[in-house]
Amino acid sequence: MLSESFHEIWIVGELGDEDVEKIKEAIAKRVLKGERRIKIKFYLREIGSLPYLEGLRKVLLENVHASIVVEEKAIDELMRELERSEKKVAILARDPSLSHDLNHFKDKLEFM
Length: 112
Fold this sequence. Notes:
Number of helices: 4
Order of helices and strands: EHEHEHEHE
Number of domains: 1
Radius of gyration: 13 Å
Largest sheet: 5 strands, parallel
Distance between the termini: 26 Å
CATH class: Alpha Beta
Shape: globular
Strand order of the largest sheet: 3-2-1-4-5
CATH architecture: 3-Layer(aba) Sandwich
Number of strands: 5
Mean pLDDT: 87
């Protein structure tokens, strides 16, 4: 299953309550389009930081019709991943210090 194509949602920084709703909406749109494989990547300053798990739990419980994979990566890897990415990804950028750098990749990003 992991070798199959996934629609990707990237979250940069920690999750807030309003972010959880945005993620739920993004997944719901994809499921309505028939896309049931979703990969959520968290880019965090502190790997192993667990506060996002409570929000993620809400997302997972409401989306039992989708196959959702979750990855956690260091925020330092974000720009390299964007350079390598060949497809457009949905991104929720919670870290304002990266907004200038992200604008360089706006053709690959769908801001949430």
